Amino acid sequence: TREIQMADELRHHVIDSALDAVIGVGKKGEILHWNARATEWFGTTEKSALGRSIDDFLPGLRSHLDSTDPT
Length: 71
Prior knowledge:
- The termini are far apart.
- A two-stranded antiparallel ribbon has the order 1-2.
- It is mostly helical.
- The chain has helices spanning 2-16, 36-42, 46-49, 61-68, and strands at residues 23-25, 31-34.
- The longest helix is centred in the first third of the chain and has 15 residues, at 2-16.
């Protein structure tokens, strides 16, 4: 619906304008979202980062998250 589309656009705008790097990661550790600040911090474009493992940029984070996952 139009409301869902508008909410999604707002979410993307908020994340993309954040002052910090925001990286969305899927359950398998794959990068799903990468904002402009992450591009500045890591020197990698969103297009290049999407689909790659978070371990490529933050080694050990995935294993840490897996060990703290209550499910």
